[in-house]
Amino acid sequence: MKEDIYFYLDKKTEILQQYWGFDSFRSMQGEIIDAVLEGNDTLALLPTGGGKSICYQVPALVKEGVCIVISPLIALMKDQVENLQKRGVKAHAIYSGMYYRDIDRILDNAAYGNVKLLYLSPERLTTPLLKERVKNMNVNLLAVDESHCISQWGYDFRPPYLQIADFRKELPQDVPVLAVTATATPEVVEDIQEKLEFKKKNVFQKSFHRSNLSYSVLTEANKPTKLVDILTRVKGTAVVYTRNRRRTKEIAQYLHKKGISASFYHAGLEPADRSKRQEDWLQNKIRVMVATNAFGMGIDKPDVRVVVHMDLPDNLEAYFQEAGRGGRDGKKSFAVLLYNEKDKILLEKQFEQAFPSLEEVRQVWQALGSYYQLAIGSGLGESYDFDLNLFSKNYQLEIVKTYNCLKLLEQNAWLTLSEAIHLPPSIKFVMDKESLYDFQIKNKKLDGLIRKILQTHQGGYNQIMVLRKFSELAYSLKITPVQLHTILQSLHQQQVLIYTPQRDKPQLTFLKERVGMENLNFDKEAYDFRWNRQRERIDKAISYAEYPVCRSEQLLKYFGETETENCGICDVCTGRNSSEMTPDEFQRLQTKIIGLLKHEQLLPKEILESFAPKYEKKLLLVLNYLYEEEMVKRNEDGKIVVHK
Fold it and tell me: How far, in Å, CA of 70 to CA of 56, rounded?
């Protein structure tokens, strides 16, 4: 056994060179891979761009068998599979909305073929088909991507992740688990290991400190004007994040008018359009990408010089991950948050909307059953195309509230709602060769189309042909894609072939069978827990924007790194922020307040009376900061004491 381990450890660099062309691993990658190859359950915390996927892809190729990768993001799974296949690695993905025949074929290949990486969305883990087929697979590693999703302490909790521990029991006991994530607070780090039932704690954590990334918060009434100023001063590639899809287009057009090359990106665009824009940005044909948070995941562009947030995110985990896409090449880069009072008001409003009542959720649940014509007791495991706008319009529901009801249903494991996915059209001839030949003779107008398909696509009579270049096929036949779609529908109706049109909608998957609305209930304790956690995250995000404390230090402290120093390059440290209170003044007031409280417990008004009246507003700001950071607390008498 030891000899096998030494062989694996030696082989890892050879695999890295063969498939990725690198001579050495990045910081901590090698140690993480060694731990996995030695059979240890491992949690790897690497910042955005730290090369997390390498940590499970290399072991998968070093050892015999298949690595199962759990990931919640369909777009990321598809990108990774495509990139691996380009490198000559056998990889496949299974996710909600796929056709049964494709799932069946991929699972067969994983069990009896030479598939090295099998990507699964978490809701697939409980399906009988997977449970049965996995028994025949030689699984060498279970990798959990975006592993923070398993924790209710985290910002992106997904109940299907809780099934992973049970799924582990379907695998041999010696199969290790590797959990990877870019962002996790200390509570989440503990929770991940507990929920995945680590045999023993084992964490590799790289510091979240980015010495080359300068964080800034700029209070601006006119954000678009300031954005132009930033992009004029800071040369090079940029990403601009905004919360609203409509705003991505508006801001991109505004930048274009100002002579700055820009495009926009969000999940509502056609897949081909998204892919084209992303590629143009990667190849520097476009300088600035204005996008929602749908952009950036899995994209490794090292030379992004500035990341600008036009809106305050509702949690620092998401902000840190998105801002961290700047400066991956180690060169000086900037992460800028444009902030004003409206951001705080909007966050508060969104928080109120994010927790609808049980009655409102039951109303949406009832409407879903009618929408898909599901009988009571049916629907378990079924996936459907879902259009939020159309659904809300049909049942006269308010869109934002409906979306939050769906998220609450998702958090309580009633359903899961994926991002939009692209499934290309496919056909399969059901006529035998002789019957098809007779059909072509009798239908001369269709003869050319049928011959063209058979000439340009492999298979036909006994297997599915995916028409990936649908538009090119149509134009080669001198017809439009719409006309080709109509003809194939007609051939389907005539039972010449089976035609499955392309699909580009988000997928809604029912994780439980339909019950009557009166039987739909939630865990009240879990609801209250998530309410409190989200309240804390919003407060921390607002604190980050408003308090004149080193931005890097605030972020590092949030992620549990308490032994930190001022970064020296953020807006606070360099004095670039035009705050009415300087960092030195903030620090002096903080030190004096703590000094007073060490001598005696004081009411808030008594603290204020210890200073000149002109300091009242500033003192309240500092006191609020000390309270939120749990440096002080109030006792039963309402007096403030130093928190020990």
Answer: 11
Distance CA 633, CA 469 (A): 64
Q: Please report the beta strands in 456-534, taking only residues with DSSP state E, as ranges in sequence order.
A: 465-466, 497-500, 506-510
Confidence (pLDDT) at 577: 57
Residue type, 222: N
Residue 331 is assigned to a structural domain of this protein? yes
In this structure, are 324 and 376 located in the same domain?
no
Residue 596 lies in a domain: yes
In this structure, what CATH number is given to the domain that contains residue 163?
3.40.50.300
Any domain includes 559: no
Measured between alpha carbons, how far is 317 from 306 in angstroms, rounded to an integer? 18
Tell me the C-alpha distance between 288 and 262, whole Å: 5
Residues 63 and 196 in one domain: yes
DSSP per position, 548-566: -S-HHHHHHHHTT--S---
- Three-state SS for 346? helix
- The whole-angstrom separation of Cα 611 and Cα 614 is 8
Q: Helix, strand, coil proportions of the chain in percent (round to 5)?
A: 50, 15, 35
How many domains does one find in the chain?
Answer: 5
pLDDT of residue 1: 46
* Chain-centroid distance, C-alpha 491: 40
Is position 226 within any domain? yes
- The pLDDT assigned to 434 comes to 87
Which structural domain, as residue segments, surrounds residue 37?
2-205
pLDDT tens digits for range 480-515: 888 899 999 999 989 888 888 877 678 898 989 999
Question: In CATH, what number is assigned to the domain containing residue 590?
Answer: 1.10.10.10
Q: Chain-centre distance of CA 129, in angstroms?
A: 27
**For 580, phi and psi rounded to 5 degrees?**
-75, -10
SS3 242: coil
Give the torsion sign (CA, 179, 184, 186, 190).
negative
3-state SS string for 24-64? CCCCCHHHHHHHHHCCCCEEEECCCCCCCCHHHHHHHHHCC
